[in-house]
């Protein structure tokens, strides 16, 4: 019996020694120490021994089991290390190899323009306000003093969702929302997307962008408006830019004006960009109508203010020399890559 155990040991150790991978090792484990393995068989054979011989043989078998288990663990660790080593060798990274080319996007000219406008007004102490694009007619028209029969309320101009809900046709409703919730002094700009049922052509799009401005405080005068817009025009379009006001009408301002800037291409002499005029129409503006202040809970006897609104596309087209507005919305990468 002792010889048999010694034989098992010798054979098992030889086999463990030769093992190449973990699967083989698992098979050998079953063969020797498994339920039906060699060691179990040897223990069963003890029935044929004399009772006084049994403890010594039992002890030998158990010692061999411990030894083999130790060997299996050792081998297993060895194989794991070998496999890791192999993986490290085959998966090595060549740090000198050039990397895959990634294509970096660019910021859309509209977004660039909005960011630049924001920077200029933030520098003048303004805050940036936001409002919904799906808006109530109440804020888009009523609060802004637009009469029931104002042409901009027509379905040919404005996209209606229901009788009382529209896609905002201007950023001006944000003025009303801010005035309702904040106490003066107020100094905000609101950039955003607006919608009008216009037919697409080189200078019109049913979706476009505006920036609204609003200042409300004590003793705000038209001169503050003009000075502010002059400062903005110089920073945005160049130090030599001049500004002029023409009388106009908006329901939410009184007096109202349209502001033109001197042509930043020809400097005012007249060219293709300004159509020979020397001036380019830039924005609408005026002193906030007392009705609007009252509608929004601000006392027009204590406070006054100015407001303005302009189209971002017009400024972006002027700054980047883009002649057709459609290019800004077609998302052709060949076009966008240039900015
Ligand atoms: N909301 C006007 C438009 O879309 C632009 C405008 C004009 C805004 C005068 C103003 C303003 O705040 O005072 O044509």
SSE blueprint:
Elements: H1 2-18, H2 22-33, H3 38-45, H4 54-90, H5 109-123, E1 127-128, E2 134-136, H6 137-140, E3 165-167, H7 172-181, E4 186-195, E5 207-217, H8 222-237, E6 243-250, E7 253-262, E8 279-288, H9 290-295, E9 304-311, H10 312-320, H11 327-330, H12 333-336
Parallel strand pairs: 1-4
Antiparallel strand pairs: 2-3, 4-5, 5-9, 6-7, 7-8, 8-9
Helix pairs in contact: 1-4, 2-4, 5-10
Bound molecules: 3,4-dihydroxyphenylalanine.
Textual characterization of the structure:
The protein is 42% helix and 19% strand. The chain has 339 residues and is of the alpha+beta class. Strand 6 (243-250) and strand 7 (253-262) form a beta hairpin. The chain is elongated and about 125 Å long. The mean pLDDT is 92. The site of 3,4-dihydroxyphenylalanine has 12 residues, from strand 8 and strand 9.
């Amino acid at each position: 019996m002792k010889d048999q155990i010694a034989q098992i040991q010798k054979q098992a150790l030889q086999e463990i020694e030769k093992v190449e991978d973990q699967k083989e090792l698992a098979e050998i484990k079953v063969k020797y120490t498994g339920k039906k393995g060699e060691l179990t068989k040897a223990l069963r054979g003890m029935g044929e021994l004399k009772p006084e011989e049994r403890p010594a043989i039992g002890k030998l078998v158990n010692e061999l089991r411990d030894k083999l288990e130790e060997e299996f663990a050792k081998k297993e660790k060895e194989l794991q290390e070998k496999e890791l080593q192999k993986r490290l060798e085959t998966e090595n990274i060549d740090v000198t190899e050039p990397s895959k080319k990634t294509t970096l996007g660019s910021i859309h000219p509209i977004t660039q323009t909005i960011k630049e406008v924001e920077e200029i007004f933030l520098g003048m102490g303004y805050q940036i306000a936001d409002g919904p694009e799906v808006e109530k007619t109440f804020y888009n028209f009523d609060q802004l003093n637009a009469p029931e029969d104002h042409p901009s309320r027509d379905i040919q101009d404005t996209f209606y969702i229901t009788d009382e809900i529209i896609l905002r046709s201007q950023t001006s409703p944000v003025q009303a929302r801010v005035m309702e919730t904040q106490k003066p002094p107020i100094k905000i700009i609101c950039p955003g997307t607006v919608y009008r049922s216009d037919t697409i052509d080189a200078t019109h799009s049913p979706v476009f962008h505006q920036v609204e401005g609003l200042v409300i405080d004590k003793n705000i005068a038209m001169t503050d408006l003009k000075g502010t817009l002059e400062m903005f025009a110089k920073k945005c379009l160049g130090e030599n830019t001049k500004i002029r006001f023409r009388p106009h009408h908006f329901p939410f301002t009184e007096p109202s004006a349209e502001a033109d800037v001197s042509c930043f291409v020809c400097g005012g002499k007249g060219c293709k960009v300004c159509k020979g005029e020397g001036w380019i129409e830039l924005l609408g503006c005026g002193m906030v109508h007392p009705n609007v202040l009252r509608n929004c809970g601000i006392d027009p006897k204590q406070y006054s203010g100015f407001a303005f609104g302009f189209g971002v596309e017009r400024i972006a087209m002027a700054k980047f020399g883009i002649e057709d507005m459609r290019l800004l919305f077609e998302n052709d990468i060949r076009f966008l890559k240039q900015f």
